[in-house]
Amino acid sequence: MSIFSRKKKILKLYLNGEITSNGSKFSGDNSLQKLKSSLLEVKQKNKDNYKGILLKMNSPGGAAATSEELAKLVLSLREEVPVVVSIGDSACSGAYMIAAASNYIFANTLSWTGSIGVIMMLPNYQELSKKIGMSFKTIKSGKMKDLGNPFREMTPDEELYLENLVKSAHKEFIDFVKFTRPNAINLEELADGRVLDARTALKNNLIDKLGTEDDALTYLITEILHGDEKDFTITDTAPKPSFLKRILDMNSPITIKFELPNNFLKF
Q: CA separation (Å) from 62 to 11, 16, 259?
């Protein structure tokens, strides 16, 4: 029997890029589907195989319901298979919701997090359609059926309805963080959508410690699992980038996008 077969296993997972209902857009690596399927596999089949999970995050957030689904999956796991998050460049909005569901959160000193808020952005092409002489006739079964129609002005009733939807989702977000991070302070003030630097997040108990990915792994092994690093092996799910992707990445500017305009509710 190989010596490695006797070692305890830790699963290293990734959440990269914007969270969408179809998966993560980042680098085309489909990391969101891989994350979800891996978490479900541990929950349903591999609780005894993996003693802990290290979740590396670089995400500005994204689709509200998808973020909530992943957060609740992490929450359902953390009592039996502890999950430690390591925030890289950012874990904001929906990504922070997922992080908040874990057992412990590490962030680099220059990481960005928080952004506990909800946004809905609807385009309006009414003036453009007038300029190019284009018009649309809408036939609908109820006054709200074409809510968000980009070729007309929104009515006051429609705007109020959407505002209430956003406020309701925001309250759900805040309540989730209150439940998963009961020691968080100044939450009502900080949950206005603002992005937080790691030191501010730490000061208000929205994260647990400043440190690197290696620090997070060491903490998971020694403080949560009460083990020794030499007794553990890491199963790393990182995709191997193609040669073309490595070349393109060398010439790509680094950008952080917190919200993108569309007509979906987003954390």
A: 24, 11, 7
Burial of 220 (0-12, 13-18, 19+ CB in 10 A): buried
Is residue 93 annotated as part of the catalytic site, yes or no?
yes
CA–CA separation, 221 and 51 (whole Å): 9
Look at residue 260 and tell me whether its pLDDT is greater than 50.
no
pLDDT, position 265: 61
pLDDT of residue 123: 81
Nearest-CA neighbor of 118 among 99, 93, 147? 93
Q: Which tokens is 106 given?
A: 């590490």
Percent of the chain with pLDDT over 90: 57
Strand spans (E) along 49-185: 50-59, 83-92, 104-107, 112-114
Nearest-5° Cα angle at 78, 22 to 39: 30
Q: What confidence category does residue 30 fall into, taking pLDDT thresholds of 50, 70 and 90?
A: low
Question: How crowded is residue 88: how many other Cβ atoms within 10 Å of its Cβ?
Answer: 19
> Model confidence over 34-87: pLDDT tens digits?
899 999 999 888 777 899 999 999 999 999 999 999 999 999 999 899 999 999
Distance CA 97, CA 71 (A): 6
Query: Cα dihedral sign for 206, 211, 215, 217?
Result: positive
Exactly one of 93, 102, 111, 115 is catalytic; which is it?
93
Amino acid at 252: S
> Which one of 130, 145, 167, 203 is the catalytic residue?
145
